[in-house]
Amino acid sequence: MSPAALLSLIRNAVRILSVVAVACTLHLYLYPFFRGCAFPLPPAPSNASDANSSALADHPAPFRLLALGDPQLEGDTSLRNYGRPNFLHLEWAIRHLTFKTEQPSLRKRLRQVTHDLVDVFFDDIPDTLETYRKHIDLFGNDFYLAHIYRTLRWWTKPTHVSVLGDLLGSQWIRDREFNRRSKRFWNRSFRGAERIPDEVAQYPAEDYNVSGILGREDSEAELWQRRLINVVGNHDIGYAGDITPELLDRFERAFGKAAYELRFELPIDDPVTNATMFDPENNPSSDRLPPELRILNINNMNLDTPALNQSLQDYTYKFINAIISTSTAVEFKGHYTLVLTHMPLYKPEGLCVDAPFFDFHEGGGVKEQNQLSADASKGFLEGIYGLSGDVNAAAAGAGRRGVILNGHDHEGCDTYHYINQSLPNDERKWQVARWDNARNDELPGKPGLPGIREITVRSMMADFGGHAGFLSVWFDQESWEWKHEFSVCALGRQYYWWFVHIYDLILLIVLVAYGVLEISIISGFNAEEWLQTRLLALSKPKSEAQKADGKTNGHATKR
């Protein structure tokens, strides 16, 4: 084939490949646009005029949380050949053959060599290939997760970002492996993100510092957009029967405190509206407080018993008691409580993929659990949110406004916890319904049925489609209450991410080859003549060698 014909063939191939590459690459890097990934928008106020209702409806919520569940970064411990050479059986075969091992007889030595050589083909080679494949998979997975975080953060513009536990894939890894995975987390998967400083992550108190102001676009808002609210999970520190001070300390050094609160205020600029707020001197009868959003990052991994370390469990309960004692009275409006944690609350079997499950170590201690126990969940609902089945309780048992976000159940789940106050005391207990069913039945906000929504965010791991959650929270001045909406979005399995990048790499190689060939033709370089010259030069030494052999043979014959 002439160079011109080859150039024409490559040119046509590049045209076809380029169209497909551009389409796939744009779809991958603009997937939030094509898949409709966005934060829910607040509805326009009912008293808004037709002229500005459209503008108000397009105004984003002042608090927008990008919620990412269970990335679970794996590492060397997931490799098939972890802790041993790639060709272990081949090394042993060589040791046997070189008499570096003790064997009772030559027959048994040769027999062992044969066994090891067979294992090379059935164990060493498959395990080594799988190890290299896993290395590539881990490398790609880091950037797959990075693609989700980076693209969604760029496109949807969240005000805050949270990773809801299980940042790493195992609590049993040693410190060296933990540090390697932590560096991959910050330098690859969440590159550009920052750990929340310890002085910002504060313990619940009556006198507290405001963590930030919502609804503003300034340097402080940009800072919170970069920070990660990292929740601790079972694969980070273990369950209650596994947690030690050492495991907890190394997590907090790398990813931030495991338990703290953040408080954000939303300023009201209208002086007339501000005058309606509670003031002990000027307006003591008002139930309106300045709008405030309280984020509680709670380590609920050791709420259930028995626990390995009692002091750590005592600290968790002390922390929750501090939350309760510093919460505003349920009779007031204007405050909103967002709980971020890892372990979901108790639900009966059938509502979510993960059913209630507990397993314990032989010596005691929680070894594994899918959900919190019913008692621990009840404490969450009645303590932190002040919900009550007693109609005579404060605020008729309605409790505080808020929502619970967690992970752990990789499939995700969206539920509503409520209690029916009309039932007799001995029959009154917490019930759970799927959120869609609860909303269709108009359970949220119904008198006599206090409750709260719990959202378990589906995992962002590739096996679960690379999901992400979008929580919008805004303040309704008419009702003087915070409201929220939640949506989800998925990138898809990792195969598409791999396909696009490999395809683009192949196209790049073809483009380079095309460019080299075209430049050579323009410069007058004759590739065909050059190739023939090279082949002739390679064949000359063979011809001369054959002649030399012939002469040598001839002389020998004459002798």
TrEMBL record:
Keywords, comma-separated and alphabetical: Membrane, Transmembrane, Transmembrane helix
Gene Ontology CC: endoplasmic reticulum; membrane
One BP term from GO: GPI anchor biosynthetic process
Segments traversing the membrane: 12-34, 495-517
Protein name: Calcineurin-like phosphoesterase domain-containing protein
Source organism per UniProt: Xylaria arbuscula
